[in-house]
Amino acid sequence: MNKEVDLKKAPRYCGISTFMNQPYTKDVTGADVAVIGIPFEMGTAPGNIFAPKEIRHVSWLLRSTSPLHMVDIWKELNIVDYGDMTVFTGDWEQSFPLIEKELEAILEKGVVPICMGGCHSVTYPQLRAYHKFYPDIALIQLDAHTDTHDVYFGKQKYTSGSVVRRAIEDGLVDPQSSIQVGIRGTMYSPGDIKQSQDLGIEVVTTDEVAEMGVAKTVEKIRRRVGNKKVFLTFDMDVVDPAFAPGTARAEPGGITSREVLGILKGLAGLEFIGFDTAEINPSHDCANLTTILGANIIFEFMALIAMYKKQKN
Amino acid sequence: MNKEVDLKKAPRYCGISTFMNQPYTKDVTGADVAVIGIPFEMGTAPGNIFAPKEIRHVSWLLRSTSPLHMVDIWKELNIVDYGDMTVFTGDWEQSFPLIEKELEAILEKGVVPICMGGCHSVTYPQLRAYHKFYPDIALIQLDAHTDTHDVYFGKQKYTSGSVVRRAIEDGLVDPQSSIQVGIRGTMYSPGDIKQSQDLGIEVVTTDEVAEMGVAKTVEKIRRRVGNKKVFLTFDMDVVDPAFAPGTARAEPGGITSREVLGILKGLAGLEFIGFDTAEINPSHDCANLTTILGANIIFEFMALIAMYKKQKN
Amino acid sequence: MNKEVDLKKAPRYCGISTFMNQPYTKDVTGADVAVIGIPFEMGTAPGNIFAPKEIRHVSWLLRSTSPLHMVDIWKELNIVDYGDMTVFTGDWEQSFPLIEKELEAILEKGVVPICMGGCHSVTYPQLRAYHKFYPDIALIQLDAHTDTHDVYFGKQKYTSGSVVRRAIEDGLVDPQSSIQVGIRGTMYSPGDIKQSQDLGIEVVTTDEVAEMGVAKTVEKIRRRVGNKKVFLTFDMDVVDPAFAPGTARAEPGGITSREVLGILKGLAGLEFIGFDTAEINPSHDCANLTTILGANIIFEFMALIAMYKKQKN
Amino acid sequence: MNKEVDLKKAPRYCGISTFMNQPYTKDVTGADVAVIGIPFEMGTAPGNIFAPKEIRHVSWLLRSTSPLHMVDIWKELNIVDYGDMTVFTGDWEQSFPLIEKELEAILEKGVVPICMGGCHSVTYPQLRAYHKFYPDIALIQLDAHTDTHDVYFGKQKYTSGSVVRRAIEDGLVDPQSSIQVGIRGTMYSPGDIKQSQDLGIEVVTTDEVAEMGVAKTVEKIRRRVGNKKVFLTFDMDVVDPAFAPGTARAEPGGITSREVLGILKGLAGLEFIGFDTAEINPSHDCANLTTILGANIIFEFMALIAMYKKQKN
Amino acid sequence: MNKEVDLKKAPRYCGISTFMNQPYTKDVTGADVAVIGIPFEMGTAPGNIFAPKEIRHVSWLLRSTSPLHMVDIWKELNIVDYGDMTVFTGDWEQSFPLIEKELEAILEKGVVPICMGGCHSVTYPQLRAYHKFYPDIALIQLDAHTDTHDVYFGKQKYTSGSVVRRAIEDGLVDPQSSIQVGIRGTMYSPGDIKQSQDLGIEVVTTDEVAEMGVAKTVEKIRRRVGNKKVFLTFDMDVVDPAFAPGTARAEPGGITSREVLGILKGLAGLEFIGFDTAEINPSHDCANLTTILGANIIFEFMALIAMYKKQKN
Amino acid sequence: MNKEVDLKKAPRYCGISTFMNQPYTKDVTGADVAVIGIPFEMGTAPGNIFAPKEIRHVSWLLRSTSPLHMVDIWKELNIVDYGDMTVFTGDWEQSFPLIEKELEAILEKGVVPICMGGCHSVTYPQLRAYHKFYPDIALIQLDAHTDTHDVYFGKQKYTSGSVVRRAIEDGLVDPQSSIQVGIRGTMYSPGDIKQSQDLGIEVVTTDEVAEMGVAKTVEKIRRRVGNKKVFLTFDMDVVDPAFAPGTARAEPGGITSREVLGILKGLAGLEFIGFDTAEINPSHDCANLTTILGANIIFEFMALIAMYKKQKN
Ligand SMILES: [Mn+2]
Ligand SMILES: [Mn+2]
Ligand SMILES: [Mn+2]
Ligand SMILES: [Mn+2]
Ligand SMILES: [Mn+2]
Ligand SMILES: [Mn+2]
Ligand SMILES: [Mn+2]
Ligand SMILES: [Mn+2]
Ligand SMILES: [Mn+2]
Ligand SMILES: [Mn+2]
Ligand SMILES: [Mn+2]
Ligand SMILES: [Mn+2]
User: What's E124's domain CATH number?
Assistant: First the structure.
């Protein structure tokens, strides 16, 4: 697709804001990877719905080669920007089936999707779609929060804070191969972490990441997921607010962007079937710090896809 | 209550952020007016839920005397800050009955409520509550939009854009005594205004306000509402974005804050049973322009209550 | 093209940021109007190059019907977003011929272009292209500045401040049918206005607009251009900085957005062959006031095209 | 001094930030006008102390000719930037005598000072200095507030809110020739305006300005000051917050920058002995709207000095 | 008090902005800890006075359990928000005795106060009050600056920069048990650190913290304070400006929020008699980074109180 | 010059914004160091031209003693602020010879210049000037990018991205003694780093800095430059965007300000003949984080000059 593009031929900020100026199309046939927006939010993190638009907006800053693996992803991959799914923010009953169905159609084409939320609740309908194609998924969750709470406000079961519990309860991911990394911040109760462990998922706190360093964190993750197919869900609040102010539940003391990139670098070789980003909130951002970081992370997701493709061939 | 307060005794910015530093209480007995937050939003104007907090936050700037009527409202009225209603943003089915019921309890005490939204949809459950006490209400709506659309996204009937249609359909206000002022901006179709008129409500566009001036606009409103009991709903987007950038649907070419204050001044003597503000969106605000204007408008609502009380006695 | 689109079917903020979500294409065949970005700037108004991207970004806020003429432009016109021209900001010698040539190819298709600068210098290569198709053009310039200075910094002849002088010198527009409206602000010398008049173009200051009002301003403009083909160039600094802070040469005391819209409304019936916007500077903007206003103005340009088309048929 | 400067020779944003790039010197001998910073603030409008720095910072935007009178002030006047007086913000007892003394030394040289506050309290020590040279001064005060309150917080007598009362009590200005224009906003009590009138000074509210228009406002002012020597004190909060958000006591519904410039234009011919600006607060500003307006107003003060000088010669 | 509160019952952003939605009361009887605002500032860090209001404003983000000690502080402690002390910013002579007296009354009730400045000067009157109850206090000062300068501007002795010198001179703290941590940034002279050491207090620079790490820093602090009663004063500028931009004297190269939290974690078990925060400046903040960090730090102060209480029982 | 200045005599924020309030003069005779602005930018990093003005603007925050070496630079050095060179942003053909010539005149006086760009392209004309005085220069480049690309947009050879290639090609620096530190971020191709190495310059990536730490990084640099005369060019994008958001090509994962200061500290004793800063972009800055860091870095450049001077004597 963009194999011939010369990045120095014209200023990259020119043109319609697709992700990295890649072609916009609803027909993903032949694509290796599709970037997809899901502008949905349950109400308590207002502004999240603007993340897909804003990430695309700054993504022209990216060049085609990943410094983590020294791979030119435009050479290795056919990339498309699928645009946004049609969703109705606030109304999960109407929107989640639409997400699930639309994602299924994309997965059928053999594409690796990278969905941009939205709040973290949208990972649930995604996982329902993935589950139909991949019955045994290891989940890597980078997040400040466990998201394994049961019910909010007496009755809300499909929120950002309960998305991982729902996914495990419904057998969408294998908790024994899954891991949450970066947990920190004030908690509802001293049992917040245990409630994750009770569901079978491994928990690594930010303090533990800081103590053992990036290399050992990577080891821990790789050991956990083994050679399973992997879905990586990236909640931006895992990053320290200084590096990612654009999030609605800022928790000081987080991991740095250097550490995040180090972790992603360490995951090369795993078989990723999909990725998403969540809780990027442009309304809280400064100087586009968070959306630029988000664009770089999505770019490195693509590099991980390229690395697996290269090794497989 | 605050009869003895000397505004020059201590810096007004000191203290807990209640509206104008008035007492916070859930017991409104004996109050003339209660300021009430409704941090609810349907999803498409993210940030509206923060309006009550932010309006209170800047309201210390206000002094006790209205320059429009030269009345010291702290002398005339017992004012309380009721805090916020418990609502679940995004979920109208759970929240609207709560709003209706909580407002009823307040109305039972003979208080004049001033509710701070939230998006404009919250006017509907308020009007349901008012209707039980006042069966014949004239509605004054200051808004850039008619809010008389029927259905959004195939099925959503209780949105900001349909709130006035719902209220008229349900007989909550008398359209023949009701009036929309300030309509402008790009429209869904050339019939947008006629659809309001077909419901029986009078429409005054911003262009008409600009042409006839404030005095004639006031006359038109007063003629329309006659001596009925009046509910005034204030959608901040009626004001030009230069004066009120903090709104999610900015429509350039609006009326100025001076014109808004002129209109409010002209309404003295009407019997207001309630007020609300909607679509104040701190996430889009600059230099608190919009929340400061909002606080001043709420203050002038109180002055209108004081003026009616004085004249009645 | 978008004849069937139901604006209430899905949230308008969804999707790739083209102008009003209109189709992006380099093939303008069959289009009535094409929105075109020219991200070029001569250096002294840094940030102007981001205007096309940012205007598109907020343009989803627009609905399809103009309130000025009650015309649904999506019904009347085939609209496309052409994306950006390839230009090399700062280097006019390389860029201007490219602009001229690319615009010629578009004009050949009978499309009415609406170009989004960039700084005001880009009007010059545009006018060179128009001149080949329309040898007798009346220019309507809305601007705080005359842009009829000769040379900057000893040698620069193709700057924003000299663009109108160059166009007149080269016979690209007929000064006797042309008019500058909104001139104000501190000047290089008392002779700044006379230098425009000496070139044959009529000058209307902001003070004169304020004094005579919108209706007489419109009359003056219409009398000047007569029934010639018209090119309208809109320099955002004509608007008061409170309404349009996003400009690099803010001149307090300008006309309001209401007045701008009033003037545009008054121009219905003229035969516009093209439009452009200039000096919209997102780096100086607040709350997107300026880009939202810019999007509305571009939308009203389209309404003027629709009005002429309707009247002709 | 700058008689030979060619504004188009080099970009105006180059260089050290003095006011309009005028020479910085503590020796004002031979100067017609000196711009002087007084970064002093009594504590309740934090951020005012940065006004002198920020006004200078944006003043390069100005060109040398006033559009109000078509006079090139660089041709007519010798202008210097005196820098800031040494003051100790918060401590009036230490600072006011220093201001008074330093200003005396400047007045001795026959210079017309334009002082940039700081909060409005600093007008008091200025007037003490002026009084020694000009025993009979008419005061023109453009302000949203009367500043004729007596005491704050039980004992503070030299605040922004009492500065005009103090000046009149001490005989520093002749109240019978003095006038306050633009009064508005919520007040401490219904008697706030009467307390000014009781001191002998005339009060014109913003509502009155709006009603009678700029021309009659000018007439009223000129009639009041007659042919006395005039000191003009400009409190930025007289301007509507949309045009001047950078002020700590924003009062919606104010006069526009166009109206301010109209009033200043109307004052040509009066014998101004000095000017100051107050309550410009960069911490509350957006897009430099307020400091740019402030710089333009200071520039027009200079034009008024030039106009008087021309007429006298 | 809040023992029964279910944080998931209603959105935490609802309601009046007290600290963590805790009850607002001037009667601290029975409380374990009281959060108290002191909106006082000496003039050179304008904006500090808004810190208490803004910290409360974001404090709803906090949940009840500290991740550092896995303790639910709402279960362990009775917490109240005392509101603000009445102070007159800029005027220390009037304000300091008021602070001292008001704090004494609170200390008499056996409450542990957490005061939110304001500038750092307000620690002095606090220490005067503490001294009456606790004659032998170890001071832990986290700060980029030593604050042991003698006199500013020829005569000012009670400034932020001299507060620690004054406290030691007056015997309010025991320098031999006291320690300053985080010192860095450009200095008035090479002797700045020695002047602290000469007063008897230990100095640990940011460089030293970086070199030895958090664990050894904690050890150093604990060794210094021994088993004395401890007052901890937290100057926000100790944190790197990337993590805490909202401070008026930003010194690049500071400690991170992770390191700050690590240090606080290490202090569990000490007997804290009080805490304060200083130099949090909302006027310089971005995305509430600083006030959110401030709220988290205050929360962890409470956790330290809870830890001591638990261990004592 | 400033030997007698007492920093505590008056508030440092008073006065005209020269660098650290040092004297502004075009006559550098007798100065040890001159701070010089070069407000030039090639077009793709709009806003860079405002860096000199904004760095000066915040530089009053600095005190006279470097904490890295405990040296009072005002005691050791005669410092002047030269103001800005006259350049024509966007037009390198006109501007580069002017820069070269003006810098030569300064170098002739034996001054060590510290130039503030502007974009990185301006290092080229500087190096041409230095080369005439110092034929054998070691270059230390702190940068996220190699800047060794050949041509942009088909023909542009003198851009920010090619400045180091040009300098080496023209023999202006000795590549064998030169080193690039901090390289990272997405790249045009996997060969980006090798293209630098092929030119003979050593490359140290950010990852390598992170891995080996500051001490070893310093060693590597010192070994490379040996005892040659050194020019240090500082591209602000070498710093992580959290610490320096004000740059047009933000690359997440950068080195921290603490690490930058650590590296600078380690370079004491080298013979620096000049310094510059580039790519500081106030239009992208937050809370002045970047300009304050820039001012501190320039200050530490001066400290390095002082250290060499002391050791030489
Ligand atoms: Mn999370
Ligand atoms: Mn999450
Ligand atoms: Mn509306
Ligand atoms: Mn509405
Ligand atoms: Mn212009
Ligand atoms: Mn122009
Ligand atoms: Mn005022
Ligand atoms: Mn005043
Ligand atoms: Mn400090
Ligand atoms: Mn301190
Ligand atoms: Mn770089
Ligand atoms: Mn570079």
Answer: 3.40.800.10
